Protein backbone atom coordinates (compact mmCIF):
# COMPACT_ATOMS: atom_id res chain seq x y z
CA UNK A 1 0.00 0.00 0.00
CA UNK A 2 1.06 3.57 -0.52
CA UNK A 3 -0.16 6.87 0.76
CA UNK A 4 -1.39 9.42 -1.78
CA UNK A 5 -2.82 12.91 -1.40
CA UNK A 6 -6.59 13.07 -1.02
CA UNK A 7 -6.88 15.12 -4.21
CA UNK A 8 -4.87 12.56 -6.25
CA UNK A 9 -7.65 9.94 -6.25
CA UNK A 10 -8.76 9.07 -9.81
CA UNK A 11 -11.66 6.98 -11.13
CA UNK A 12 -10.65 3.33 -10.99
CA UNK A 13 -8.22 3.82 -8.08
CA UNK A 14 -8.63 1.31 -5.26
CA UNK A 15 -8.16 2.68 -1.76
CA UNK A 16 -8.38 1.25 1.74
CA UNK A 17 -10.97 3.27 3.61
CA UNK A 18 -12.92 2.50 6.78
CA UNK A 19 -11.54 -1.04 6.91
CA UNK A 20 -12.51 -2.10 3.38
CA UNK A 21 -11.38 -1.94 -0.24
CA UNK A 22 -13.15 0.78 -2.23
CA UNK A 23 -12.90 1.79 -5.88
CA UNK A 24 -13.35 5.42 -6.91
CA UNK A 25 -16.26 5.51 -9.36
CA UNK A 26 -16.72 9.24 -9.93
CA UNK A 27 -14.72 12.27 -8.86
CA UNK A 28 -15.51 15.95 -8.84
CA UNK A 29 -13.08 18.73 -7.99
CA UNK A 30 -14.83 21.41 -5.95
CA UNK A 31 -13.47 24.78 -4.98
CA UNK A 32 -15.95 26.54 -2.71
CA UNK A 33 -15.84 30.30 -2.35
CA UNK A 34 -14.89 29.89 1.28
CA UNK A 35 -12.40 27.32 2.56
CA UNK A 36 -10.05 25.00 0.73
CA UNK A 37 -10.67 22.96 -2.36
CA UNK A 38 -11.64 19.32 -2.01
CA UNK A 39 -12.35 16.26 -4.08
CA UNK A 40 -15.86 14.79 -3.89
CA UNK A 41 -15.44 11.05 -4.53
CA UNK A 42 -18.10 8.41 -5.06
CA UNK A 43 -16.70 5.14 -3.72
CA UNK A 44 -17.97 1.61 -4.31
CA UNK A 45 -17.09 -1.22 -1.97
CA UNK A 46 -15.38 -4.02 -3.91
CA UNK A 47 -16.73 -6.74 -1.64
CA UNK A 48 -20.42 -5.94 -1.21
CA UNK A 49 -21.08 -3.20 -3.79
CA UNK A 50 -22.28 -0.56 -1.32
CA UNK A 51 -21.65 3.05 -2.27
CA UNK A 52 -20.30 5.93 -0.24
CA UNK A 53 -19.62 9.60 -0.93
CA UNK A 54 -16.53 11.09 0.69
CA UNK A 55 -14.69 14.40 0.59
CA UNK A 56 -10.92 14.35 0.47
CA UNK A 57 -8.77 17.46 0.89
CA UNK A 58 -5.24 17.80 -0.48
CA UNK A 59 -3.90 17.84 3.09
CA UNK A 60 -5.37 14.40 3.82
CA UNK A 61 -3.62 11.22 2.82
CA UNK A 62 -5.36 8.10 1.57
CA UNK A 63 -4.06 4.52 1.44
CA UNK A 64 -3.99 3.41 -2.18
CA UNK A 65 -3.88 -0.36 -2.45
CA UNK A 66 -1.11 -1.76 -4.64
CA UNK A 67 -2.64 -4.10 -7.13
CA UNK A 68 -1.05 -6.38 -9.68
CA UNK A 69 -1.71 -5.08 -13.19
CA UNK A 70 -1.89 -7.48 -16.11
CA UNK A 71 -2.48 -6.58 -19.76
CA UNK A 72 -5.68 -8.03 -21.18
CA UNK A 73 -7.69 -7.75 -24.35
CA UNK A 74 -11.48 -7.28 -24.38
CA UNK A 75 -13.14 -10.18 -26.20
CA UNK A 76 -16.93 -9.96 -25.82
CA UNK A 77 -19.91 -9.08 -23.66
CA UNK A 78 -22.34 -11.78 -22.58
CA UNK A 79 -25.28 -10.33 -20.65
CA UNK A 80 -23.85 -8.92 -17.43
CA UNK A 81 -20.39 -10.47 -17.93
CA UNK A 82 -17.44 -9.00 -19.80
CA UNK A 83 -14.82 -11.48 -21.01
CA UNK A 84 -11.14 -10.55 -21.30
CA UNK A 85 -8.06 -12.53 -22.35
CA UNK A 86 -4.66 -12.29 -20.66
CA UNK A 87 -2.32 -11.30 -23.52
CA UNK A 88 0.61 -13.28 -22.11
CA UNK A 89 -1.05 -16.53 -20.94
CA UNK A 90 -4.17 -16.47 -23.18
CA UNK A 91 -6.31 -17.32 -20.14
CA UNK A 92 -9.79 -15.84 -20.16
CA UNK A 93 -11.36 -14.02 -17.24
CA UNK A 94 -14.98 -12.91 -16.93
CA UNK A 95 -15.79 -9.80 -14.93
CA UNK A 96 -19.14 -8.39 -13.88
CA UNK A 97 -20.25 -5.36 -15.90
CA UNK A 98 -21.01 -3.60 -12.59
CA UNK A 99 -17.30 -3.69 -11.74
CA UNK A 100 -16.48 -1.54 -14.78
CA UNK A 101 -19.52 0.70 -14.32
CA UNK A 102 -20.60 3.30 -16.87
CA UNK A 103 -17.19 3.10 -18.56
CA UNK A 104 -18.13 -0.36 -19.94
CA UNK A 105 -19.83 1.48 -22.82
CA UNK A 106 -16.35 2.47 -24.09
CA UNK A 107 -15.17 -1.14 -24.47
CA UNK A 108 -14.55 -2.15 -28.09
CA UNK A 109 -13.74 -5.60 -29.51
CA UNK A 110 -10.00 -6.24 -29.27
CA UNK A 111 -9.37 -3.20 -27.03
CA UNK A 112 -6.24 -3.47 -24.87
CA UNK A 113 -6.92 -2.79 -21.19
CA UNK A 114 -5.18 -3.36 -17.86
CA UNK A 115 -6.92 -5.46 -15.22
CA UNK A 116 -5.89 -4.97 -11.61
CA UNK A 117 -5.85 -8.03 -9.38
CA UNK A 118 -5.79 -8.18 -5.58
CA UNK A 119 -4.72 -11.59 -4.31
CA UNK A 120 -5.49 -13.22 -7.70
CA UNK A 121 -9.05 -11.91 -7.90
CA UNK A 122 -9.87 -9.24 -10.53
CA UNK A 123 -10.93 -5.92 -9.05
CA UNK A 124 -10.83 -3.15 -11.64
CA UNK A 125 -10.44 -2.61 -15.36
CA UNK A 126 -8.33 0.32 -16.56
CA UNK A 127 -9.39 1.59 -19.98
CA UNK A 128 -7.28 3.67 -22.33
CA UNK A 129 -7.61 7.41 -21.56
CA UNK A 130 -9.13 8.11 -24.97
CA UNK A 131 -11.25 6.21 -27.47
CA UNK A 132 -12.34 7.02 -31.01
CA UNK A 133 -16.07 6.76 -31.63
CA UNK A 134 -18.37 7.67 -34.49
CA UNK A 135 -21.25 10.13 -34.12
CA UNK A 136 -24.45 8.33 -35.17
CA UNK A 137 -26.91 11.15 -34.51
CA UNK A 138 -26.65 14.90 -34.00
CA UNK A 139 -28.26 18.12 -35.15
CA UNK A 140 -27.13 19.37 -38.57
CA UNK A 141 -24.38 21.97 -38.76
CA UNK A 142 -25.68 25.52 -39.08
CA UNK A 143 -23.52 27.84 -41.19
CA UNK A 144 -22.20 30.85 -39.37
CA UNK A 145 -22.52 29.27 -35.94
CA UNK A 146 -19.37 29.88 -33.92
CA UNK A 147 -17.57 27.23 -31.90
CA UNK A 148 -17.11 29.63 -29.00
CA UNK A 149 -19.11 28.02 -26.24
CA UNK A 150 -22.15 26.52 -27.92
CA UNK A 151 -22.08 22.75 -27.89
CA UNK A 152 -24.80 20.44 -29.18
CA UNK A 153 -25.82 16.95 -28.04
CA UNK A 154 -24.70 13.93 -30.06
CA UNK A 155 -25.29 10.20 -29.77
CA UNK A 156 -22.26 7.98 -30.37
CA UNK A 157 -22.06 4.47 -31.84
CA UNK A 158 -21.96 2.99 -28.32
CA UNK A 159 -25.22 4.74 -27.37
CA UNK A 160 -23.57 7.36 -25.12
CA UNK A 161 -24.57 11.01 -25.27
CA UNK A 162 -21.86 13.66 -25.36
CA UNK A 163 -21.76 17.37 -26.10
CA UNK A 164 -19.84 18.21 -29.30
CA UNK A 165 -18.91 21.47 -31.04
CA UNK A 166 -21.34 22.67 -33.72
CA UNK A 167 -18.95 21.75 -36.57
CA UNK A 168 -19.17 18.01 -35.78
CA UNK A 169 -21.69 16.08 -37.86
CA UNK A 170 -23.22 12.63 -38.16
CA UNK A 171 -20.73 10.03 -39.41
CA UNK A 172 -17.65 11.85 -38.08
CA UNK A 173 -15.22 10.12 -35.76
CA UNK A 174 -14.27 11.93 -32.57
CA UNK A 175 -11.92 11.33 -29.65
CA UNK A 176 -13.65 10.97 -26.26
CA UNK A 177 -12.08 10.97 -22.77
CA UNK A 178 -13.05 7.70 -21.02
CA UNK A 179 -12.81 9.22 -17.51
CA UNK A 180 -15.03 12.25 -18.07
CA UNK A 181 -17.04 11.11 -21.14
CA UNK A 182 -16.22 14.43 -22.78
CA UNK A 183 -15.44 15.33 -26.40
CA UNK A 184 -11.71 16.06 -26.87
CA UNK A 185 -11.15 16.54 -30.59
CA UNK A 186 -11.90 15.22 -34.07
CA UNK A 187 -10.20 11.94 -34.89
CA UNK A 188 -7.42 12.10 -37.50
UniProtKB/TrEMBL annotation:
Domain of life: Bacteria
Record pathway: Protein biosynthesis; polypeptide chain elongation
Record keyword Transcription regulation present: no
Keyword check for Cytoplasm: yes
InterPro entries found in the cross-reference section: Elong-fact-P_C (IPR015365), NA-bd_OB-fold (IPR012340), Rib_uL2_dom2 (IPR014722), Transl_elong_fac_P/YeiP (IPR020599), Transl_elong_KOW-like (IPR013185), Transl_elong_P/YeiP_cen (IPR001059), Transl_elong_P/YeiP_CS (IPR013852), Transl_elongation_fac_P (IPR011768)
Residue ranges of domain Elongation factor P C-terminal in the record: 131-186
Entry keywords, A to Z: Cytoplasm, Elongation factor, Protein biosynthesis
Single annotated GO MF: translation elongation factor activity
Subcellular location: Cytoplasm
Function (record text): Involved in peptide bond synthesis. Stimulates efficient translation and peptide-bond synthesis on native or reconstituted 70S ribosomes in vitro. Probably functions indirectly by altering the affinity of the ribosome for aminoacyl-tRNA, thus increasing their reactivity as acceptors for peptidyl transferase.
Annotated protein name in UniProt: Elongation factor P
Organism the protein comes from: Sneathiella sedimenti
Amino acid sequence: MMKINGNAVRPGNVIEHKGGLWVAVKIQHTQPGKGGAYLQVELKNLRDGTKLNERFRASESVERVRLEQKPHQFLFEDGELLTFMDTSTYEQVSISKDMVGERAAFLQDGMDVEIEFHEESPLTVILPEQVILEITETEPTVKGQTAASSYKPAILENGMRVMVPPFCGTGEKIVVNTETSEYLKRAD
